[in-house]
Design brief:
The protein has 6 helices and 7 strands. By secondary structure, the chain is of the alpha+beta class. It has one domain (2-170): Aminopeptidase, CATH 3.40.630.30. Strand 6 (141-152) and strand 7 (155-165) form a beta hairpin. Helix 1 packs across helix 3.
């Protein structure tokens, strides 16, 4: 798999997997239309990569045929240019194959090798055990549990916070091994 900018041709695939209730369960949306996906692609085409305060979505595409299978979000903090928050969304048909791990590993390589960041963070609903396991498996440190900290879809929820520092990433034997085609 590779990472690249979103393209307008990705809109139908984005709408399809983001409309899936299992994908939307831990996301900010309930349903996701083709019009919303087209607007996302349009807005991302105009977005400057790395602009403080912005979210930048990268397409996760299958190697060889450029088929969109998910997307990664990178939030560039407005008040701290040395760290980003990340998130990953993968089509249900592609889950369970190690692709989310590969995508996050590539984001870590991009963050620490190319962008020279100090810290990468991730937050997830405490009930999202698959996301928590993903970050822990990749060597993120669980920094905290925030109890009833966010009103999400009408319910107060707990969130887990994860982080990886550049020096922690460098101590990982697989650090820097992913090829970046973003």
């Amino acid at each position: 798999m590779t990472l690249r900018r979103l393209a307008m041709t990705d809109a139908a695939a984005i709408a399809a997997y983001r409309a899936d209730p299992n994908v939307a369960r831990y996301q900010s949306w309930e349903t996701y239309s083709l019009a919303q996906a087209e607007e996302l692609c349009r807005s991302q085409a105009a977005e400057v990569f790395g602009r403080p305060g912005s979210w930048f979505q990268l397409a996760i595409v299958r190697a060889g045929d450029d088929t969109l299978i998910g997307d990664c979000g990178l939030h560039f903090a407005a008040d701290d240019p040395q760290q980003i928050e990340i998130g990953v969304t993968l089509s249900p048909s592609q889950q369970g194959r190690g692709l989310a791990s590969e995508a996050v590993a590539r984001i870590l390589d991009l963050s620490f090798l190319t962008l020279n960041l100090h810290r990468v963070t991730a937050r997830t609903d405490a009930d999202n055990t698959k996301a928590a396991a993903l970050f822990e498996r990749l060597g993120f440190r669980r920094e905290g549990l925030f109890r009833s900290c966010a009103m999400f879809k009408g319910v107060w929820c707990d969130e887990l916070s994860f982080a990886m520092l550049e020096q922690e990433w460098r101590s990982n034997p697989s650090a820097g091994s992913a090829v970046i085609n973003a």
